[in-house]
Amino acid sequence: MGAAAVDGAASASMRAAVSRLSFGAAAEERRDAAGEVARLARADERTKRLLPELGVVPPLLDMLADADARGAAGARVAAAGALLELARGTHRLVD
Known about the structure:
Largest sheet: none
Low-confidence stretches: none
Mean pLDDT: 83
Order of helices and strands: HHHHH
Number of domains: 1
Number of helices: 5
Distance between the termini: 28 Å
Structural class: mainly alpha
């Protein structure tokens, strides 16, 4: 299953968020992209599974670690929220 399995609007929104998250120069842009990732992950289970495949986790982790960036507090909160949404419901019980 790939990004083509998601409808066109959601796919375009995912790709735009990934691009802004990975290449956004301003902390505000990256913060907004992290918020969009969280929203997308909440909205649809299939999208939630596709977002990590598109590479959102490393930039989100970088945002958490970047304490020196201007506007870092808001960006860190947004990154943490996005990571939590991506992780929600992914745990498995092992017998």
